[in-house]
Specification:
By secondary structure, the protein is mainly β. It is built from one helix and eight strands, in the order ββαββββββ. The radius of gyration is 13 Å and the shape is globular. The termini are far apart.
């Protein structure tokens, strides 16, 4: 089992991902929200994500069908993860929040 660690910008919100699966393939979403935030995203099973600090700092944004839930730190405003629309088993991850991962080193990331 591989353990990934992640945090928002201010460090108030911290999380871990425990999974045997890779966090890729990486992608960018082209919906109206994701196109504006421009994050490189990965994915993991929802059951693999544990918020280890700062759960009280999480703010949620959803719109339209309200099926997708986007999570942000109330203090620094960084998007850390989201529950994907239509896929009840997967959590989307902001790869820039994962310790030791440089999203700029991933090269061309497809939009999908």
């Amino acid at each position: 089992m591989k353990k990934y660690f992640g945090a928002c910008h201010c460090g108030g919100l911290r999380f871990e991902i425990d999974t045997d699966d890779p966090l890729g393939p990486y992608f960018r979403c082209n919906c109206s929200l994701c196109a504006r935030k421009g994050a490189v995203m990965g994915a993991a099973p929802r059951s693999a994500l544990t918020v280890t600090r700062g759960a009280e700092l999480i703010s949620t944004y959803s719109w339209n069908t309200r099926e997708a839930q986007h999570y942000f730190c109330k203090v620094c405003g960084i998007y850390t993860h989201h529950l994907m629309r239509g896929d009840t088993t997967t959590v989307g991850l902001n790869m820039a929040c994962i310790e030791g991962l440089d999203p700029f080193a991933l090269g061309e990331v497809p939009v999908g």
